[in-house]
Design goal:
Blueprint: H1 2-32, H2 37-48, H3 53-67, E1 70-72, H4 82-95, E2 103-105, H5 106-110
Helix pairs in contact: 1-3, 2-3
Length: 111
């Protein structure tokens, strides 16, 4: 019984550490390779459809960092004043330490 208790504790610790590592890896990949946003979004949401409930929660956590790379756009709305848009994003980048906020994409909007 003592061995089973130790194994159970170890399994719990490993599972927790593994989940944190996966989230960290997802965050790093989202920052370093924003061009992978759409393939990652597609893959995670595809797997989400058939995942068990406890796995669905993890998949949503892994998806979260990638959402920062997305900006939904409406192709039917005419573009706004581009100078204002660039000034707004320049100010946001200065406040966020240079981190980009997302990129508008009709592809992202369609997903």
């Amino acid at each position: 019984a003592e061995g089973d208790k130790g194994r159970s504790t170890l399994d719990t610790l490993l599972a927790t550490t593994y989940c944190r590592s996966q989230f960290y890896l997802s965050s790093q990949l989202a920052q370093l390779h924003p061009e992978l946003t759409m393939p990652m979004f597609s893959e995670i949401t595809c797997r989400f459809q058939t995942a068990r409930p406890e796995v669905k929660q993890l998949l949503l956590q892994y998806l979260l960092p990638w959402l920062h790379n997305m900006e939904l756009v409406d192709p039917n709305v005419p573009p706004t004043n581009l100078l204002f848009y660039y000034q707004l994003h320049a100010n946001e980048m200065g406040r966020s330490g240079g981190r980009r906020e997302g990129w508008g994409s009709a592809e992202a909007t369609e997903m």
